[in-house]
Amino acid sequence: MTASLVVFLVALPLCIGVAVASGVPAELGIISGVIGGLVVGAVRGSTLQVSGPAAGLAALVAETVLEHGLAMLGVIVLFSGILQIVLGVVRLGRMFQAISLAVVQGMLAGIGLPLMFSQAYPMSDAKAPGTPIENMAGIPGLFAGILTDPQAMIATLLGVATIVLSFLWKKAPGPAKRIPAALVAVGIGIAVAALPGVDVKTLQVGNLLASVRVPGAGEFAGLADAAVITSVLTFTVIASAESLFTAAAVDRMHSGPRTRYNTELIAQGAGNTIAGVLGALPITAVVARSSANVQAGAKTRISRTLHGLWLLAFALLLPQVLALIPISVLAGVLVHSGWKLFAPEEFPKMWRQDRGEFVVMTTTTLVIVATALLEGVLIGLAAGIVLAALRMSQTVIRQHVEEDTAKVVMAGNATFLRLPQVIEALESAAASGRPRIRLDLTGVTHLDHACRSQVEEFTAQQRGLGLRVELLMPGPAKAEAPVSTGPAPQPEPAPAAAPGPDAEWFYLDAGPLPGGHMDPADIYAESYRPVTSR
């Protein structure tokens, strides 16, 4: 019971703030919070994870509402929920864990940075210009306006105080720090807004039930628009990824039952399906509420379910209290949330750990800020795949000449990405002028079709020119013979048999060298003709 009340106090200002940042009525944020508790919270996916409207989706929702209208939001959320259910049913919940951590962190930073700049405007009772780039470019003008407007100055100070409280409140002495910082800031904001001469913007709240917008036939017809389908896919991927990554983070906070990823994805889908039917905000797991739930001592799903009941009761019985909350305070709460999503300390940390991943992370963030969330994530994923492919294609190629033999030794993973280096080494061996070429690929752990074809074509070509070419292809490791103090036993002759389908051949040319002579190595190579099987 205590944990559910703590989660309720954390969730209330966040639900309202996310709705305001998303450009929709505050009631829709509360409805999504109620669904996140009563629907998602009741399913046995994750025990302690808490769901509801999230700051990470605020910018995406605002963009969607601006492009397609509030009426289409319900349809988009509804079909995103259905897709999540399908993904969970076919057991693809863990698929999202295969996404590069650099892409995830870059995505969160790309969400958090624009969120901070966009909320700087309502924090001073002003309206944001529009795109992230426009919001950033308009900051100097915003500051100039604040300095000339006393009421804007008061609103800004309330927002700044909220941000400072959000960072420092956890250091408060005694039991006071158990009270959520956002709730303390809301209380201070209400008190200041009630003072004589203070005229800051406060929340506009209507009837909770009247805010429900069930999609009609006209909205469903909008699914014929490719842009709407793209929005559905974007919501599905981002909401699912955020929920399942949060689940992994929450699992590390406690020692209780682990998250059932596919079941949790179905639960998230059920919540978003209902939210879509009611025309509310999309739902995802939220770290702030989940960590508050764990820290409050929750052990079962009851706390995350009951917090939805408290949200519903508060919205139905005390809606007039919500109308007293200054918008600048809610904006300050979201600026703090944006900072945590941005997590600037992760960039130098990633630089120290892995500079390639740092490039992927930074690229994802910059593309999201410059274009849109989906484009940034897709480009980040592509960059991560290219980086992984390059690293998996590390091929070591050594070349040297010994007497009459030009030797090329390869090790590592030889893929088409390293084909230029392979071709260069082969051509160098051919240009050495030696009558014999030895290609040793036994140290190659993976040889793809492109490299194998190039090597075999080169071998056939040089043999056609009259050169002696020895080609040692990758094969299974040979077991070492046991150590014996007696005379070595003579090996029994291998029975003549046709090679099996898994046979590994050593391609050795037994033809004589130009000039008609053979050296001991040639005699050995000529005798080394049996098939070796795995």
Account of the protein in words:
The protein has 534 residues and is α/β, with parallel strands linked by helices. The protein folds into two domains: 1-388, no CATH class; 394-472, Transcription Regulator spoIIAA, CATH 3.30.750.24. The chain has 22 helices and seven strands. The chain has helices spanning 2-21, 26-38, 58-68, 70-89, 101-120, 132-137, 139-148, 150-168, 181-193, 217-221, 226-251, 261-277, 287-295, 302-317, 319-322, 327-342, 346-353, 355-370, 373-392, 419-430, 449-464, 520-527; strands at 51-52, 284-285, 395-402, 405-414, 436-447, 468-472, 507-508. It has a five-stranded mixed β-sheet, covered by helices on one side. It has a two-stranded antiparallel ribbon with strand order 1-2. A hairpin with a 2-residue loop joins strand 3 and strand 4. Helix 1 packs across helix 16 (327-342), helix 8 crosses helix 16 and helix 17 (346-353) packs antiparallel against helix 18 (355-370). The longest helix is centred in the middle third of the chain and has 26 residues, at 226-251. The chain is elongated. The two termini are 63 Å apart.
Topology:
Layout: H1 2-21, H2 26-38, E1 51-52, H3 58-68, H4 70-89, H5 101-120, H6 132-137, H7 139-148, H8 150-168, H9 181-193, H10 217-221, H11 226-251, H12 261-277, E2 284-285, H13 287-295, H14 302-317, H15 319-322, H16 327-342, H17 346-353, H18 355-370, H19 373-392, E3 395-402, E4 405-414, H20 419-430, E5 436-447, H21 449-464, E6 468-472, E7 507-508, H22 520-527
Parallel strand pairs: 4-5, 5-6
Antiparallel strand pairs: 1-2, 3-4, 6-7
Helix pairs in contact: 1-2, 1-9, 1-13, 1-14, 1-16, 2-12, 2-14, 3-4, 4-11, 4-12, 5-16, 5-18, 5-19, 7-8, 8-9, 8-16, 9-16, 11-12, 17-18, 18-19, 20-21
Keywords: Membrane, Transmembrane, Transmembrane helix
Transmembrane segments: 70-92, 99-117, 152-169, 226-250, 309-339, 359-390
Subcellular location: Membrane
